[in-house]
Amino acid sequence: MQEFELIRSIFQSSVMANTEGRNDILLGIGDDCAQVQIPEGQTLVFSMDTMVEGRHFPFDADPLDIGYRAVATCVSDLAAMGAKPAFFTLGLTMPESDPQWLAAFAEGMAELAEPIGLLLVGGDTTKGPLTITLQVHGYVEKEQTPRRSQAQVGDDIYVTGTLGDAAAAVPIVTGEMHISAARFDYFYDRFWRPSPRLIAGMALKRVVHSMLDVSDGLAQDLQHITTASGVGAKIRLADLPVSDELRDWQPDSAYTLALTGGDDYELCFTAPKSAREEIQLITQTLHLPCTIIGEITESGFEVEGFQGELGGWQHF
Ligand code: ADP
Ligand code: MG
Questions:
Q1: Which residues form the PurM-like N-terminal domain (predicted)?
Q2: One domain, residues 165 and 102
Q3: Pick from 91, 126, 142: which residue ends a domain?
Q4: Of 237, 221, 97, 247, nearest to 151 (Cα)?
Q5: In this structure, is residue 309 part of a structural domain?
Q6: Which residue numbers belong to the known binding site for ATP?
Q7: Is 41 helix (H, G, I), strand (E, B) or coil?
Q8: Which atom of ligand 1 is nearest the CA belonging to 29?
Q9: Does one domain contain both 128 and 34?
Q10: 53 and 171 fall within a common domain
Q11: Whose CA is closest to atom 12 on ligand 1?
Q12: Contact present, 64 and 108 (Cβ < 8 Å)
């Protein structure tokens, strides 16, 4: 029991659990429940993600990285809903209570959570194989919530940032592959430190017809939009945004990785052609690369220039 007290105190004393200056959080860590006042005119959106050691991240990874990435990947869902980050809870299962590990894990979470105003308000701690569950919550206006189901025929299909780096990084992160130090640093960060597109999501929510974050691979995730919207899509392989680093390193597979690899946490959205100028203005102001990769069609799913099986990250 004492060890759980210790765990609680590590989280409770973190900057990311400090409720000062937050009118919406009436009670944070420490009571039987947290208590939140949802701001006037807003709705609550929330999403849960679970990460299991050895499955979603390698054994013996740096707890600082695990913490950062756990928040980043979960918060990416808020970005896709155009929501403002508000608070989160943490379900932590770990084999033993290791204060040093916990302090670093908390620091990694706080590194991202604190500056975006995502407050840790509670959680649960149990003993077992290392498993991290986060439930993140955000605020968004009811009428301005982008869904997967509202894509329309003729919409442009957009992707932010570049795709494929994180999938290419997996064998580096697991230690199966060794590369030069400079390349290692770049790709290591691309796996462990995704940049959830929160500001872009909030800025774009009024303009887009549909939106999601790309976590399981573009091909698979875009099909979530087409299925939910009852439409099709046609994209061009050669138009997918790929980083110079990936093209240099893996010229032959860069575009396939961009199409099918997971873990990028970029936004994919559709919008009417009439919104092109506004979208360009928004993304340029944010210095966020944003690429039109194709168009929403009546039916089917076509990737021009791609021969092969369309896969994606299958969890089981
Ligand atoms: P209870 O027995 O009433 O369920 P706990 O002893 O599990 O309460 O937790 C006490 C407080 O510590 C609660 O506010 C809970 O939200 C918080 N807490 C426990 N584990 C965590 C965790 N992993 N992260 C954040 N807060 C936690
Ligand atoms: Mg209780």
A1: 30-140
A2: no
A3: 142
A4: 221
A5: no
A6: 123-124, 148, 215
A7: coil
A8: 14
A9: yes
A10: no
A11: 30
A12: yes
